# Entry
Amino acid sequence: MTTATLTATATPTELAPTDIDWYDLMPNDGKRYELVDGELKELPPMRMSHTTVAGTITFLFGQHIRSQGLPFVFGPGAAFRLGMSGANFRVPDVSVTPRERISGNLDNEPGIAAGFPDIAVEVVSRTDTYEEVVAKALLYLERGVAVVLLVDLYNREVVIRRSGGAIHTLTGDDTLTLDPVLPGFSCSVSEIFSDLDQMAAMEGGDD
# Structure
């Protein structure tokens, strides 16, 4: 595989390859990146609270998908090409995608999906701004994602944004359902934060 080094003088055109060629331009420095309107953007390191909640959501999705034998691929860290130009590759914290939408051989094309997931989850932490999170959610919805979940660590709430514009906020023992996108799935908001709350209780402080 041919590799290339990105420099500060690279133009947006140079950073807008199509399909998996984007991975050839990724710096091999152990950091996380997204391609935003043709510009490479480094993602901030994730705090333990962030990874804990993302892991809990992945487990809840996986438990349901496996038990019901649903034809979905799920998990953290997959990159999605949003639109045909290749100018936007985004990496949701957790995603759920129909199997038929995953492109090619995943052994050779790590984490790449053609198009968009059905569900994209973004865990909102102190390093995120409200404007950035909403802009990313709207981009997902514009490009075909059916449901975006914005999971707020510090307010312990989940904001559901659906294609068509519906927005709902859930807290505490409210029940999150994702029909018809993920049939039969349900959990309480408190379940999503349960591992984080246990970790915070053991530490005797905030997350």
Notes: The two ends are 41 Å apart (CA to CA). The domain at 54-203 is CATH 3.90.1570.10 (tt1808, chain A). Residues 52 and 207 are 10 Å apart (CA to CA). The chain has a mean pLDDT of 79.
